[in-house]
Design a protein that fits this description.
This protein has a 7-stranded mixed sheet, with helices on both faces. The protein starts with 23 loop residues before the first helix and ends with a helix. The chain is built from 13 helices and 14 strands. The chain is globular and about 70 Å long. It has 409 residues and is α/β, with parallel strands linked by helices. Bound molecules: pyridoxal-5'-phosphate (PLP). Pyridoxal-5'-phosphate (PLP) binds next to helix 3 and helix 4.
């Protein structure tokens, strides 16, 4: 059968599981909030969500907020990041991880990743520590927890704050302990594509009462628990979550364990089927990861196994066969114009120890060239969905020679 690019029929004619999923629970929650007339202001629904979220992660405090970006800003503010403080971050993540550092007038210092997990490499982090380093933000990329043992150890050894950006990692666990327990604070996003969502939303977890109070004040215009509505003690802003969002997120979180189970089984089946396949590799998970929510499945593409067809043409062929695979980020974060036109610091008082213009972190660069993402909702269906993905890979590989001609014509 010809490739669709040559006028053939697609391998897959129907869509994968749509995202987000919802049902009666979300509808009931929304109506409850509507009818309660208590729609905002850290109301009962928000408190219910915070209690459930903290409980699910076995953490003492959860503070709801507007999104995952301000969650990071709140966490950085609470741990005391000030103008010119260096914060080590990965370059393979969404911009918020580094932008939040800039928003707090800190200096993002990029350290390279471990190619098998796409998480910060402990060796690279160790090398990036300087006398001005104050914090490390680890991202549990794609839902795979970062190497907590090594990275937390480095933070402790150098007296650095440790923040987990868990925007991809709802329900992930390391050695049996949910993520969110290991740092001074952990941040989550409930943006439209996340594993639990209300379209937008965020939360911060911490086991420290003092940090929890600071974070709550930061997101709530400098108020204090027990203080009056018109009493403001510290600098903050309004980053509160609404009751509608909290109700929907709570309902979504109830779906999460079953979705993690289904995705986990399908991802394992996919891994099995892919083992026999040349040219697309899927790294094994670290044995210390005891729960992986599979937010993103990252494959590495080898053009040599596809007659030299470059990744983006392979992806075009794959998409036309009905498989909505995506390229990884177009470049590491430091290649964004934001970093290329320094100084990005609002107060202009610091300079970066890294020349972002000439920075080249090889593993981060490589995955932007050869990485392919399959999104989490593709693994929420049946084994037939996985068989279709593999069948499309096989079809393209068999006809890769003709794709080369297409490129050359
Ligand atoms: C790793 C990571 N951190 C932070 C964020 C920011 O979250 P939000 O979009 O809710 O602001 C995202 C969002 O995509 C993310 O992927």
């Amino acid at each position: 059968m010809d490739l669709v690019l040559f006028g053939g029929q697609p391998i897959r004619q129907k869509p994968f599981t749509p995202w987000p999923t919802y049902g009666a629970e979300e509808e009931t929650a929304l109506l409850e909030v509507l009818r309660s007339r208590s729609w905002g202001g850290y109301n009962e629904k928000v408190k219910e969500f915070e209690t459930a979220f903290a409980g699910m992660h076995k953490v003492q405090h959860a503070i709801a907020c507007a999104n995952g970006t301000v969650a990071l800003e709140a966490a950085l503010s609470a741990v005391g990041i000030q103008c010119g403080d260096e914060v080590i971050v990965p370059p393979i993540t969404f911009i918020s991880t580094a932008m939040a550092v800039l928003s707090r007038h800190g200096v993002p210092v990029f350290a390279d990743i471990d190619p098998s997990t796409l998480n910060l490499s402990p060796q690279a982090v160790e090398q990036a520590v300087s006398p001005r380093t104050r914090a490390i933000i680890v991202v549990h990329f794609g839902g795979h927890p970062a190497d907590i043992d090594a990275l937390c150890g480095i933070a402790r050894q150098h007296g650095l704050a440790f923040i987990e950006d868990a925007a991809h990692a709802h329900g992930a666990a390391w050695r049996g302990t949910p993520v969110g327990n290991f740092g001074d604070a952990a941040t989550f996003s409930f943006q439209a594509f996340k594993l639990a969502t209300a379209g937008e939303g965020g939360a911060i977890l911490t086991n420290s009462q003092a940090l929890a109070e600071k974070i709550w004040g930061y997101c709530n215009l400098g108020r204090r628990h027990g203080g009056g509505w018109f009493e403001h003690f510290t600098l903050g802003t309004n980053h509160r979550l609404t009751g509608f969002q909290a109700g929907v997120i709570s309902a979504q979180l109830k779906r999460l364990p079953e979705q993690i189970r289904v995705r986990g089984e399908n991802v394992e089946y996919f891994r099995e089927r892919l083992r026999a396949f040349r040219g697309l590799t899927f790294a094994e998970y670290d044995q210390r990861v005891t729960s992986h929510p599979n937010y993103l499945v990252t494959l590495r593409y080898d053009p040599a196994a596809f007659a030299g067809v470059e990744r983006d043409l392979f992806l075009r062929a794959l998409q036309s066969e009905g498989i909505p695979a995506q390229p990884t980020y177009p470049h590491p974060l430091y290649r964004n114009p934001l970093f290329q036109s320094l100084p990005p610091c609002g107060c202009g008082k610091w300079s970066t120890p890294q020349d972002y213009k000439s920075l080249f972190l090889p593993e981060s660069e490589r995955v932007c060239k050869d990485g392919i993402w399959l999104e989490h909702s593709m693994f929420l269906g049946t084994r037939q969905d996985i068989d279709d993905i593999i069948a499309a890979f096989e079809k393209i590989q068999q006809q890769a020679g003709s794709l080369v001609q297409l490129r050359e014509s």
